[in-house]
Amino acid sequence: MTTIGYGVSDPMFDECPEVVPLLVAQSLIGLLMDAIFLNLMYTRFSTAFTRSASIIFTDVAIVYEENGFVKIAFRVCEVARKPLIEPMVRLYLIKHGRVAVDADMEGFLDVDTHQMALEEPDINIADGKLFLTLPTKVVHCLDETSPLSSGPVRNMQQFHDQIQAMDFFEVIVVLSGTCPITGNSLEARQSYTASDLRYNCTFAPCVSLHDDKHQVNFEYFHRTMKCDQTGKSPSTKLL
């Protein structure tokens, strides 16, 4: 396609004008194929799947008491140098209802999905958008509006008993944002079950200051510390 016209002594191809529209069609088809190929290459390398892998969630969620309420929290951070644009996080509680008793529906479950309100980040401040360059804690308070209980949970033992009484318990975390390089929307997901809960714990510090720059140690990012009996100050034991 790029050598059309070079070395041709007769532009009409020895009085064969039918070749001219054929060459035009060839050039247009070639340009279209180039555009399709370049688009496929761009789509392959700008996929948001690999970008979402730069969002790191803690392996476990902590349960602790604060201001007379039981709260559940986890940490999230981003390892990429260029942070997401307007990242937002949502929490969903997955619960199983009663098993259908109809013989034709044996083995099926009633699955209920409940959205969980967040205490942190506050939706009234910056529309609840996160700053993921540093580790950010996401907190849900077990008050009267929480789908985890029918009323306020005052102590962790009460919450633990409620979780154990459930047939199924899972919290789905969905973090969405926009890639600053490609402009693609992406989602990162994390799941926490009853075995992922750590009671009466807090997260270990994982940020240090070197040459007036904050550095995140991801080796300590997932670690938790056991709180003392008052639940206010953590002990030095890492979990």
From TrEMBL:
Gene Ontology terms for molecular function: inward rectifier potassium channel activity
Key words, A-Z: Ion channel, Ion transport, Membrane, Potassium, Potassium transport, Transmembrane, Transmembrane helix, Transport, Voltage-gated channel
A Gene Ontology cellular-component term: plasma membrane
Record InterPro entries: Ig_E-set, IRK_C, K_chnl_inward-rec_Kir, K_chnl_inward-rec_Kir_cyto, Kir_TM
Domain Potassium channel inwardly rectifying transmembrane: 2-46
Family as reported in the entry's similarity comment: Belongs to the inward rectifier-type potassium channel (TC 1.A.2.1) family.
Name recorded for this polypeptide: Inward rectifier potassium channel C-terminal domain-containing protein
Native source species: Cladocopium goreaui
Lineage: Eukaryota, Sar, Alveolata, Dinophyceae, Suessiales
